[in-house]
Amino acid sequence: MSVITLTSDFGTDNYLIARLKGAILSEVSNIQLVDIKHTISPFNIIEAAYVFKNVFMYFPEQTVHLIMVQAQPLNSVYVYDYQQILCAKINEQYILCLNNGILSLALSGYNYEVKLSGMEKPKLYVSWLDMAKIAVQLIKKPEQTWNRYFQSEPKYIKKEWQKPVIIHGDLQGLSIHIDGYGNLVTNITQDIFEEYVGNDPFCIRVRSVVIEKIVKYRYQEINGSYIAYFNDLGYLTLSINYGNFADIMGIVDPVPVTVSKKLSI
Fold it and tell me: Same domain for 18 and 111?
């Protein structure tokens, strides 16, 4: 059975996902639709890329992925290039998304092919139904659609992951994702953290919270305590044990996270 995955910032309290699925199923019924995540923060291509990057490789060949997240408009005006549809091919899977930088983020570190959709010129607005129609064609006739509908070697927007930097002796990172439990995932990897800290005492600061140790087994910590750990992907993650860190801290957008090689007072 063929697979189409859906990733978006639509939310789950409206009709958009159902309409999209209905449009797909009306064209090809013998298919499995998989929801990766629909609660991506609005316009947050960094979060969408982080989520997608860490799941797509587990899907079978011939899977078609739709990443439906627009970039934040510039000065309230959409850039034409952002409304072009890109298609990437990697490990016999296909990825459809807008030309807004998300593709290079989601596939950083991988080798892949990229083509541009066969529109005569970019639209001011691309309906997600346009992308769904292309997905259906890729399911029905993958090679023919890839070779005939898309233009080779496009000049597409590329973005790079923002890496932690050393500022005034401190390691300065940034939150990139809030998971379903309200834990704050940062862009500080375990390798970067350990290279910076070494064997020195340290403290991790985000807003008014200070954490002075990394825990391995969260269940051994006191309920309600602030904790830091490396998640299964190796990213420094901040949490409240059996609580919602993001909600309690009032965090919605990305926030700075600082690691210092000194004891907090």
Answer: yes
List b or e across 67-77, with b for residues whose CB sees 16 or more CB atoms inside 10 angstroms.
Answer: bbbbbeeeeee
CA-wise closest residue to 175 among 239, 103, 108, 225: 239
Range of the domain at 131: 2-152
114-123: pLDDT as tens digits? 998 865 455 5
The CA distances from residue 207 to 10, 175, 184, 248, in Å, are: 29, 12, 12, 12
Structure tokens at 145: 């659609």
Within a domain: residue 71?
Answer: yes
- Specify whether 87 is located in the same domain as 6: yes
Q: Compute how many other C-beta atoms are within 10 angstroms of the C-beta atom of residue 113.
A: 13
| Residues 16 and 145 both lie in one domain | yes
Pair 246, 175 in one domain: yes
Within a domain: residue 105?
yes
DSSP 57: G
Dist CA 147 CA 131 (whole Å): 17
Q: How far apart are CA 139 and CA 64, in angstroms?
A: 7
Count of structural domains within the chain: 2
Do 137 and 181 fall into the same domain?
Answer: no
d(CA 21, CA 34) in angstroms, rounded, equals: 10
CA distances from 242 to 35, 86, 183 (A): 26, 41, 10
Confidence band (pLDDT; 50, 70, 90) for 264? Answer: very low
Same-domain status, 217 and 88: no
Report the SS3 class of residue 49. helix
225-245 confidence digits (pLDDT tens) = 999 999 999 999 999 998 999
